[in-house]
Design a protein that fits this description.
Length: 421
């Protein structure tokens, strides 16, 4: 459920007409709903009620300071994957003890930054990384809390580009080697083993792959404890999918996911961490764009928008589907027609949808891409020197620009000219 609904013939973001925001900030722009963000975060938090837990929002999904502050105020921890994300989390007021650091390629500099600034745990993904972290920790005279990310070799049944839990993926260490790697970790004086980490992929629409992975983690917990390791925390990653269309089967709910966690791991008495990104922010954001032209092509009609692949890369990159709806509510029973919905960038891949059935929309009309809050703004670029588009946060009847659109001058000034030119 989200808070982008038609009211009086207009799409609203909470209590603000989307057209009013478009008038004020210009198109295209991202618009997030505080109520939806809050609701989705709480669903996870409540799903784990009764179990000691921390919901570490995977901020790679949307990392604007205002979004982080909104979630931090609800008690969220953060899952970060770079020094930049760590700095953003700290700048938003998240204490180090609520930040977990994931990622296959943490640099020594990033390790130092997090050890000095405070960190809950590093999710380490390889032996070379373990050795590097041990060295950095000893250099600083501290111990680094770690969980080892294990790769359970489970098929997440999602898009190949976002599946991470099969043995052929670059992530984690094979679960079969876990005992050996934990023994190595225990022998490193700069490291303190606190738990196990697993993440099998993103946009999962079934619980079964989670169940398979978590059962393996449960078994491994027993084995490692018998080996003498103090496994007191389990980080279960993110990955629960969202409905991108109204029609397809809805993915499992956070409550069902929470129940699965309790069923598979509850008996171990471990503190549970989860790292949801998409489900927290995905349906809490829309991308609003204006139709520049409607063009008749050979056997098809194009809607050319002022948003493009540089603003929302998911359709081009993953063939992802985003519902596109007119901001002005279509008349009941309005006839639909098929359109190829495209952006102005000079590539055929700059196509948001082919043959999409849409109610009448024409030049100057506003449209909204739904479910664009996660992996939208954060994956945008300035390709074709199209400025990064603004982000807006709505809270009941108020809205605020939380990231400004840069001017052309600002963009150009970021380049520097060598003295020989
Ligand atoms: N934890 C780890 C270690 C991850 O790698 C990810 C996502 C998450 C948590 C959060 O997963 P979520 O709950 O959001 O599914 N750009 C792609 C998605 C990439 C996901 C990468 N890792 C997309 O637009 O679909």
């Amino acid at each position: 459920m989200d808070h982008f609904l038609y009211r009086n013939g207009q799409l609203f973001a909470e209590d603000v007409p989307v057209a009013e925001i478009a008038e004020a900030v210009g198109t295209p722009f991202y618009c997030y709903s505080t109520a939806t963000l809050t609701r989705h975060f709480r669903l996870f938090d409540e799903a784990l009620e009764g179990t000691e837990h921390l919901v570490c929002y995977a901020m790679k999904a949307a990392s604007n300071q205002a979004i982080l502050k909104t979630l931090a105020a609800l008690g969220a921890g953060m899952d970060v994957v770079s020094g930049g994300e760590y700095a953003r989390a700290r700048a938003a007021g998240v204490p180090g003890e609520r930040i977990v650091f994931s990622g296959v390629g943490k640099t020594r500099e990033e390790m130092r930054q997090a050890l000095e600034g405070g960190i809950r745990q590093f999710n380490v993904e390889s032996e070379p990384e373990m050795a590097a972290l041990n060295a950095v920790a000893l250099e600083l005279g501290v111990t680094a809390p770690i969980a080892v990310r294990v790769n359970p070799d489970v098929d997440a049944k999602t898009h190949a580009k976002i599946a991470t839990g099969k043995s052929e993926n670059k992530f984690g260490i094979p679960i079969a080697r876990a005992r050996e790697v934990y023994a190595e970790a225990a022998a490193m004086p700069g490291l303190e083993v606190v738990g196990i980490d697993v993440h099998i992929g993103s946009q999962l629409t079934e619980l079964e792959p989670f169940r398979l992975a978590y059962e393996k983690v449960a078994e491994l917990t027993g084995v490692l404890r018998r080996d003498g390791h103090d496994i007191r925390r389990l980080d279960l990653g993110g990955g629960l999918g969202i409905p991108y269309t109204r029609s397809n089967d809805a993915p499992p709910l956070p409550t069902e996911y929470g129940q699965l966690i309790k069923d598979t791991l509850g008996h171990l008495g471990c503190e549970i961490e989860i790292e949801p990104g998409r489900l927290v922010v995905g349906n809490a954001g829309i991308l609003v764009s204006r139709v520049i032209y409607r063009k008749s092509g050979e056997g098809r009609d194009f809607l050319i928008l002022d948003a493009a692949m540089n603003d929302l890369i998911r359709p081009a990159m993953y063939d992802a589907h985003h519902d596109i709806v007119p901001v002005q509510e279509p008349a009941p029973g309005a006839e639909q027609a098929p359109y190829d919905v495209v952006g102005p960038v000079c590539e055929s891949g700059d196509t948001f949808a082919r043959g999409r059935m849409l109610p009448p929309v024409g030049e100057g009309d506003l449209v909204a891409f739904r479910s664009a809050g996660a992996y939208g703004a954060v994956m945008s670029s300035e390709y074709n020197t199209r400025p990064l588009i603004p982000e807006v946060l709505v809270h009941e009847h108020q809205f605020a620009v939380i990231r400004q659109r840069p001017t052309f001058d600002e963009i150009i000034k970021r380049d520097t000219i060598p003295e020989w030119l």
